[in-house]
Amino acid sequence: MSQQTFSDFEYSNRSRTTRREQFLDTMDAIIPWPKWLDIIRPYYYDESSKTRGRRPTGLETMLRMYLLQAWFTLSDEGVEDAIYDSYAMRKFMGVNFVTGKAPDATTLLHFRHLMEEHQLSQRLFAEINRQLEASGQIMRGGSIVDATLIAAPTSTKNQAKRRDPEMHQTKKGNEWHLG
Predict the structure, then answer these.
(1) How high is the pLDDT of residue 164?
(2) In this structure, are 34 and 112 located in the same domain?
(3) Does residue 74 lie in a domain region?
(4) 136: phi > 0 → left, psi -120 to 50 → alpha, else beta; which?
(5) How far apart are CA 179 and CA 164, in angstroms?
(6) Which of 80, 77, 75, 105 is nearest to 90 (CA)?
(7) Which pLDDT value is given to residue 60?
(8) Is 57 a residue whose pLDDT tops 70?
(9) DSSP SS3 for 121
(10) DSSP string, the chain
(11) Structural domain of 152
């Protein structure tokens, strides 16, 4: 286990977990990380090679950053900033700023292009949707209805002096509303 940072200590004493953190914890638990990494590994850089230049960022770190970008619809720079700003995202990424740093936007850009070039995104997101549906975390279908009460004239005070068959009454508190 790595050394606890001041922000880890500070956040461990919170009385409430944010929805973002709950979502990321759920995703971290249900994603089959070894399976997904094995799907991408043949297309990713050889992490153990002793070539010149900057060493490639770990595959799992890049996949986690890529998923954050997709789930929260962030730009390359936006997800980099969000990791620095959000404790929940930093925890999901496994980034410890004492010993390391988050990958930069350009690194994510190259990873995203690699995923698109080999159609890996479609395979992974189809799989995650199946898992979310199976675990009851995602719902298909349904409707959202705006049930706001609005002021409307009573049904017999219209121009035709007739009752509108689509209008109904409802009571909110002690007041009746027509609409």
Answers:
(1) 67
(2) yes
(3) yes
(4) left
(5) 10
(6) 80
(7) 92
(8) yes
(9) helix
(10) -PPPPHHHHHHHT-S---HHHHHHHHHHHHS-HHHHHHHHGGGS--TT---SSSPPPPHHHHHHHHHHHHHTT--HHHHHHHHHH-HHHHHHHT--TTT--PPPHHHHHHHHHHHHHTTHHHHHHHHHHHHHHHTT----S-------------GGGSTT-S--TT--EEEETTEEEE-
(11) 144-179
Tell me which of 139 and 170 has the higher pLDDT. Answer: 170
Residues 67 and 106 in one domain: yes
Which of 5, 28, 136, 10 lies closest to 89 in space, CA to CA?
28
- For residues 93 and 161, membership in a common domain is answered with no
**Same domain (yes/no): 130, 148:** no
CA atoms within 13 A on the CB side of 90: 18
- Count how many Cα atoms sit within 13 Å of the Cα of residue 103 in the half-sphere of its side chain: 27
Task: Please tell me whether residues 128 and 52 are part of one structural domain.
Answer: yes
1 occurs within a structural domain = no
> 115 and 108 in contact (C-beta within 8 Å)?
no
Mean pLDDT to the nearest integer, 106-112: 91
Q: Nearest 5°: phi and psi at 178?
A: -115, 135
**Is residue 127 domain-shared with residue 155, that is, in the same domain?**
no
Tell me if the pTM is above 0.90.
no
> 21 and 108 in one domain?
yes
Output DSSP code: residue 54: S
**Overall domain count for the chain:** 2
